[in-house]
Amino acid sequence: MDAAAASAPTLADVVAVLDDLYPPSTAEGWDAVGLVAGDPAAEVRKVLFAVDPVAEVVDEALAWGADLVVAHHPLFLRGVHSVAATTFKGAVVHRLLAAGCALHVAHTNADAAPRGVADALADLVGVVDRRPLVAREADADDAERGIGRVGRLAEPVTLRAFAERVAAALPATAQGVRVAGDLDALVTTAAVVGGSGDSLFDAVRAAVADVYVTADLRHHPASELRERAAFEARTAGPAGSPTGRAAGTPFLVDVAHFASEWPWLAYAAEDLADRLRAHAGEGTVTTRVSTLATDPWTARVASPGR
């Protein structure tokens, strides 16, 4: 990924590659993706990848001399009437542009893409032979594109061992990893969704996954899912669950939102550089993955005796 003496692509060249990897048309209707700020004619030599376009990331980008920041989360998810530097978001835009650094966002379009957020998370926690948890209807010819991933684990492990694997693989956060379920139960299949995933509980149940890894799980949806699993385990009878689901599943593994999406950055950096190298006329770039922990939670105080 060393740009050395190679020619530099333009921002338009880089955006074209990013849009090919993560087509804007595959983003959710409410999302705001694509180029946020920057001159398409400007040259790009250094690209920083980060989860959040926050002030600390801007500090890192400018100190490194980045020409482009590719962020996962949108800076402006809703329409605004001003980008004056009198607001914290306006200040981000002004600082980037004053330094000649552009900003591009790949959000839900990166969630759904092959080698996107879901695939990166699935690889990290060991989900193989997988498919999208929710396939995109508009992409029926592309079996790899869709929300989340579901598949089997290379070998059955206890829920405790699986949760420990997740905790060891993801960036450390104050939250750590929360688990709902029998820690000694064996799990053989898993579903993953980077970011907030409790809206997809029905899809996880339909996929007959033993365990679900996602972030931002809320009390009521999680409680109802676990109550339903316990009820079905009690009423299944000697023949077992009519759905083929193991008793008491799906179990839940709840991680920090930032941690669940960070693994994708390395894939995005590698794929952008590879695509640009494959088209020699577009030049090459040096890429860097931010290791700043931009999770908003900074500490956790355990309950006494826990």
Automatic annotation (TrEMBL):
Cross-referenced InterPro entries: DUF34/NIF3, DUF34/NIF3_sf
Record keywords, A-Z: Metal-binding
UniProt organism field: Isoptericola hypogeus
Family that this chain belongs to: Belongs to the GTP cyclohydrolase I type 2/NIF3 family.
Domain of life according to the entry: Bacteria
UniProt entry tagged with the keyword Nuclease: no
Subunit structure: Homohexamer.
Keyword Metal-binding: yes
A Pfam family assignment: DUF34_NIF3
Name of protein: GTP cyclohydrolase 1 type 2 homolog
